[in-house]
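A quick aside before the break. I want you to see a complete sequence-to-structure record at least once, exactly as it would be stored in a machine-readable document. Don't worry about memorizing anything.
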Amino acid sequence: MSPIGRIFIVLNLILSAAFVGWGLNALDHTGKYKEELAATKKAHTEEVAKKDAEVAKLGGEVNAVTEQQRQMREERDTKATEADRLKTQLDELKRAHDGLSANLTKIQATLGDYNNSIAQLSQQKDAAIERAHEAERARDGAVQEKDAAVLAQSNAEEATNSAQQQIGDLQGQSQSLEEQVSTLEARIAQIVATTGVDLSKIMPAPKIDAYVLNVDRGLKLVILNKGKKDNVREGYTFDVYRGSQYKGQVRIQDVQDGMSSGLIVNEKNAIATGDQATTTL
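That is the input. The structure line, written in tokens, reads:
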């Protein structure tokens, strides 16, 4: 064998021994590493289990907190709903309070009015009682006056009967006098018509003022607006004038209730409708 071969063999032996030594060393270290790894793995497993337990615990706590939060949210929502309901109820109570306050004010005002009315009614009652007393006194006085009136009525009836009897007598006398006057007036009219005597010369006529209603030139007839109801009689003479102008005289020939007619016996100026006439110029 050549030296180089031997050298390679030696080198290989040396390298093999070195490799075996390294392998043994590595195996030794690997065993230690395995032990350390097992210990570490065991510790890690225990730590993981511990952490899992903690995680589970925390998960339970989280679930509990979540449930608590859910319950709190539900309670919050319930409280919020209750708060809204209470707020609404409070608003309603406020409105009801305002209404009650207004009603109370009205009631107080009404009570005040009632008190005033009661006071007025009390005054009216007192006044009514006083008026009742006055009415009783007046009634007593009226009874007395009634008795006096009955007596006076009885006296008046007697006086009335007596007066009616006297009136009947006077009416009979008046009728008799009227008949006598009518007879005398007829006789006077007959005398005037027969003799043409101016009645005003033998028997003064009362003052009678009249107006000329119409004039008939052909008959020389004048119609006046006064008659029997104004005491105009046949034979009366009327002087006719207008203002300060004298017209003439008219002697009455015929007398009606509301008018009379007479003949023109003297005419200085033309007598016309509307002229004035009088028995005593």
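Two observations worth writing down. The chain has two domains: 1-151, 205-278. The helical segments are 3-195, 199-202. We'll return to this after the break.
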